[in-house]
Structures are given as C-alpha cells and as structure tokens.
Write a structure and sequence with these properties.
409 residues; 6% helix; mainly beta
C-alpha cells in the first residue's frame, strides 16, 4: 500500500511539473452537449473533464470533506473532521464511437480504494450500444448519479447505502440505448455481471444487509456461484415533466453447489426500484425521489432478525432562494433543502406472536447550501434520526450538525 501511494504521489508531482511548462491555453474543459436531455444513466459521462491540447485522454474528479458533531441518546463522540472521499476520472475517446472511462475512489483517506467504473463503450446505433468491464449496476438512480458535488446533503441516502449497496459495481457486459422524440427521451440498460455472495445474511450487522457483499473483492475476478446477476433499467424523460426510472436486479446469492455436490437450493435476492426527478417551472424547485424493495430467500435455520423483505427510499426537495453575484462569483446560488428518508430492514412478522417486526429508521435532514459555481457546493446540514429495534421499543435518537464542501476539479 505504501509503495502504491508513493507511486501515485510521484506521478502526480511529475504531471504537475509537466503542466507547469505548458501553455494554459491548451488546458480546457471538455464541453458538454446541453441541447440534449440528460438522464441519470448519462451521469457517468456528464462530468467536467480537463483535456490537455489534443491528447486523447481527459482527466477529472471530485473531492468532499466535512465536519460533524452528532449525539445519539445524549452521547457524543465529540467534534469530528472527515475526508469522505477523493475520486479520480480518466476518460478517452479511442475512436469516434469507442469510449473508455474509469472512476477510482479513495474513501476515508485511503481506508478503502475502489474501482467503481472502468468500462469500454462501443456505439453501434442509438438504440444499441455495447458496454463491458467494471459496470455500475443501475438499481435506482442514486447508484449511477452519486457524485458528491451534485447533492445538497453531506450523507448519502440511508436507503441507497444501507439497504441497497450504493456504488455497487461488478465485472460484466451489457447493452444500452436511447431514443429522442421531440421533448421526450426513452432509454434502457441491461447487464449480466458477477453478483452477491452469502455475506448478505452472514455479516457483522446481524441482519439482512446487501452492502456486505461489497467486501468481497474476489467478485472482480470470479463469480461466487457461477450464476450471473441480472440488472436492467428503463427510463423515460420529458423536458417539462421530469424523469421516471424503473429498475430491477436479481440473481442467486448462495453457494448451492461445490465440485458437483449439492449444498443447498438456489437462493435468490431480488431488488426493484422506482425513481423520479423533476424541476418545477417558474419557482425552480428540484424534487428527487427513489423507493426500492428487496426480497431475499433466507434459510429457515436463520432467526427472525434476518428479514426476507425490506423497503425504503428518500425524497429531496431543493429550493433556490437567491441567485445573484456574491463575493465575486457571478452565478452564485443559495439553496434551502430538505431530505426525508425511511428504511424498513425487516417487513416480516414474528412467528410466535404474529406481531410486526419493527427494525426501521426515519430521518429528516434540513439543509442550507451555497454554490459559488455549479460544480462546487458548501453545505450545512442538521441530521435527525430515530430508529426502532426489532421489538419496537422507544426509538434511539441521533441528532447533530454537519458542515462541509464538495467540488469537482
């Protein structure tokens, strides 16, 4: 790890030294086609990149850091400063219809280093394009459109990170396409990839927990059980109405056979999600929402705390209140925002009493954010959670302030 970091630092230093000797005119931001309607599935390319002259490679990335002071049931860990993540993008147009893009993320300093996306796209026709490599499974909208500078909230949604596995990517292949008709755009994606393993029910959380499979780095070189994970999404967007997406992800998660010996039946995990986003005309209010359902075939030998059904989602409302030059920034924007979120980790009932299992969390996050430019956000959040245990006892309460920034570079 130390050698890897040293190489990264030396390479960065060499690059900066080289750039210092280059005419700044040659450095330019890659322009975007603003005449076409962008979807969540376009987020992987809808980012600012820096291109050096006529070199075929473009670079970019984003960074986010924050301060927080939270209390849970009156107990606090005090003042905390966090370097949430540093993400690097490298893109290249290999030929006019062949593209490559990679996304490498360093979380919590270098506690985790992940390749979140590294794929080659081959454009054959508007409705038929091929993609292969490390792809991001398009379940919901946040998993694809998760860059920190795009959001007014410091924490990622609970439903996207603790129920669905946020930034969930795997090795595989698939197809995607779009069709434009007047003010409408229709799109689809479909992939076959490696998938989950039995850690979704055998983990330190002691509950059904899909994000636990992200710990399995072997999924980038082999499938846990030899059966592909199927992921698909369809989306439709109207420039005046908004975007609606429907997505599905499903596959076998357990090791059901080993060297021809049957160990168990094939046990499936299935997730479905619906997402919607729009901007209200005149007032400019941005509304973004997502809701998902998860179903897991849990063995009868597991206790009732491992839920076979889960559901949850979030709604963000962002209202620009001031758009004017501020502190020397010509297009600065001040926003107020509110996020409401809910996750039920166990929708089952106790077999002995028939009573409902209440393993769930509610959250409200009011926010104020300032954008000196569109690619940079400074945000102040107040988080308030209340979470019930399996038995539905009085909820555990967490509350506190968070302050930080996120920016593309």
């Amino acid at each position: 790890m130390k050698k890897t970091l040293l190489l990264i630092l030396l390479s960065t230093a060499a690059s900066l030294d080289a750039l210092a000797q280059i005419d700044p005119v040659l450095l330019r931001r890659v322009s975007k086609d603003s005449t076409r309607t962008q979807l969540n599935m376009d987020a992987v390319y809808n980012r600012p990149f820096l291109q050096l002259g006529k070199l075929p490679v473009s670079l970019g990335g984003y960074v986010e850091a924050n301060y927080q002071y939270l209390q849970e049931n009156g107990v606090s860990e005090g003042h905390q400063f966090q370097m949430r993540r540093l993400t690097l993008f490298v893109a290249s147009t290999i030929y006019k219809r062949i593209k490559f893009l990679s996304e490498i993320e360093f979380e919590d300093g270098t506690k985790e280093i992940n390749i979140e996306f590294a794929s080659v796209d081959i454009e054959i026709a508007p409705l038929l394009n091929l993609r292969g490599g490390v792809v991001m499974n398009p379940i919901g909208a946040f998993n694809q459109n998760h860059d920190g500078p795009k959001w007014e909230f410091i924490d990622r949604p609970v439903s996207a990170t603790q129920m669905l596995p946020a930034t969930w990517s795997n090795v595989g292949f698939g197809v995607f396409g779009k069709k434009y008709t007047d003010n409408w755009v229709y799109a689809y994606e479909a992939y076959l990839t490696n998938g989950f393993d039995d850690k979704i029910i055998d983990n330190s959380e002691n509950k059904t927990f899909l994000p636990a499979s992200k710990e399995n780095r072997d999924r980038f070189e082999e499938s846990f059980n030899g059966i592909p994970l199927v992921t698909g999404k369809v989306a439709v967007k109207n420039k005046q109405i908004g975007e609606l997406g429907l997505s599905y992800m499903g596959g076998v998660y357990n090791k059901f056979e080993d060297d021809g010996l049957t160990l168990d039946k094939k046990r499936r995990v299935t997730a479905c999600a619906v997402d919607f986003n729009t901007i209200l005309p005149r007032v400019g209010t941005q509304i973004t929402g997502e809701w998902a359902w998860v179903k897991v075939d849990v063995p009868d030998t597991y206790t009732e705390q491992y839920g076979s059904r889960q559901q949850g989602g979030f709604v963000d409302i962002v209202q620009p209140v001031l758009k004017k030059p501020m502190f020397g920034f010509e297009k600065a924007v001040l926003n107020v925002a509110l996020r409401g979120e809910y996750v039920d980790w166990n929708r089952d009932h106790f077999k002995s009493t028939g009573g409902r299992i209440a393993d769930e969390v509610f959250s409200l996050v009011p926010a104020v954010s300032w954008r000196p430019v569109a690619q940079t956000v400074i945000r102040l959040n107040y988080r308030y959670n209340w979470q019930k245990d399996l038995l539905g006892n009085p909820p555990s309460r967490l509350a506190g302030f968070q302050f930080g920034f996120s920016t593309y570079f």
